[in-house]
Amino acid sequence: MAAVFAFTVFAMHADDLTALDMSTASAKRAAYAELLKQAEALFHGERDWLANASQFSALIGQQVPELNWAGFYLNRDYPKPGSELVLGPFQGKVACVRIPFDKGVCGACARTGEIQLVEDVHAFPGHIACDGASNAELVLPVRVNGVLWGVFDMDSPRHGRFDQTDADGMSALVSLFVRACDWS
Ligand code: SME
Predict the structure, then answer these.
(1) How far is the CA of 30 from the centre of ligand 1 (A)?
(2) What is the reported pTM?
(3) Which of 124, 121, 152, 123 is nearest to 134 (CA)?
(4) DSSP structure string for 17-31
């Protein structure tokens, strides 16, 4: 709570963030509850989507253990449905820039509008290997006013890294991100 308060006063101080433990199911649930508070504090007083998307990627990349990439791919045709994703704010190594909706895990998420929880990316047909270190992936749709605005993608070197608790926790965080921004 002290760290959250410090954010609201000083806007942002990375050193106030404490590393999150996700080593057990209950610790993971508690960590996602804490992440929601940290994200709320981070967005406080700021409604610019680019600033908030950048901070969101940094927060997830920094706080969620065992990730090698975390970030947005955007439907730049929004509010039209679109057919291709373009790289947005992220944390991690340089990545593929454009992903058609019919390619990869991110494309599957954009095409179906459904969360993609992939335990082994090498078994996923059409997976795009931006970073050879990635073995598991979680991709969530980001909808604004009911239309696909983009996806949020997380990669991990550990097979089976993501489970339903990650999907639920990240869904709540993505919803908070959408509510925290102006979209006009
Ligand atoms: N693996 C993704 C591509 C994006 S990178 O992981 C950053 C996919 O198959 O869509």
Answers:
(1) 28
(2) 0.93
(3) 121
(4) PPPPP-SSHHHHHHH
